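user: can you give me the structure for this one chain? tokens are fine.
assistant: on it. calling the predictor now.
[tool input]
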Amino acid sequence: MALNRRLFLSTASMALAAPVISRAAAPMPFTLILDWFVNPDHAPLFAAKYCGAYAKAGLDVKLVPPTDPDLPPRLVASGKADAALTYQTQLYLLVDQGLPVRRTGTLIDKPLNTLTALKRSGITKLQDLKGRKVGYSVAGVEPVIIGAMLKHVGMSLKDIQLVNVNFELVSSLRSNEVDAVIGTYRTYEDIQLAEAGLDPVVFLPEDYGVPPSEELIVLSNSSGLKNPALPAFLAAVKEGVAALKTDPDGMLKQFLKDNPSLNDKLDIASWHALPPYFDNDPAALDAKRYKVYRDFLFENGVIKKKLPLHDYAVTVS
């Protein structure tokens, strides 16, 4: 946090000049709407605070959990927040709908999404899903991902029964409502299932024909790309990532002090599993990855337009 400072003058100077008071520039406010409630996925954002990166950058950062996970991009699109967290897969849908948003940074630059079954189901390879029930939560994108994975092994969606489990991924697996689910995270639900002794069988979409995507990105309004607080924020998060990877236990101690409800075995395990997935340079843009994923969604009918890269993702400075 920037502090007001007094300009101290020597006695001689005071005799020659009128008293002068100098104030440091006021911190730049910056509001980021999270994708959902605070969790270990957001570790670098908190680490940037703990290591003093926000203060050094002259920022007053507010991290705000949304009341509804559908709201963050729309709050940014309407100019009610400086930025929001969302997912690369969602970005294309938002732009396709005409929302004036752009990816300006990346928090998690590797996919976390998995297709998961339990060992007791007898499923050991994707072909074993034939005739089985597969749960999903996000219409449009997740069935396309499953379809691409099945196509990779000579199958199609006609070979399985899709069931909308409305985000009840773990409970639907445990209750045998479905035989597998898409949408579990390798850094959370898959750990949860393993800790419960349920022996998850995990399939990574990128191993089965689905282009890798960035899991968690920073979204900004296209009219706010010149906001000087934005590159300052991304630079501070870069410092947060480095601090987190240098001292994960120290950062965890402060995070749990701020968020005591997350002081449990699963969230702590997730915290320690996540550092390899955080982007070391949040402002950098992998242009090829964004074009490849755009083409994947267009070819599978998820988006109606194949717009140029700058309509989806930019770098700011």
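assistant: here you go. The two ends are 22 Å apart (CA to CA). Strands lie at 28-33, 59-64, 83-86, 101-108, 113-118, 133-136, 161-164, 180-185, 200-203, 216-221.
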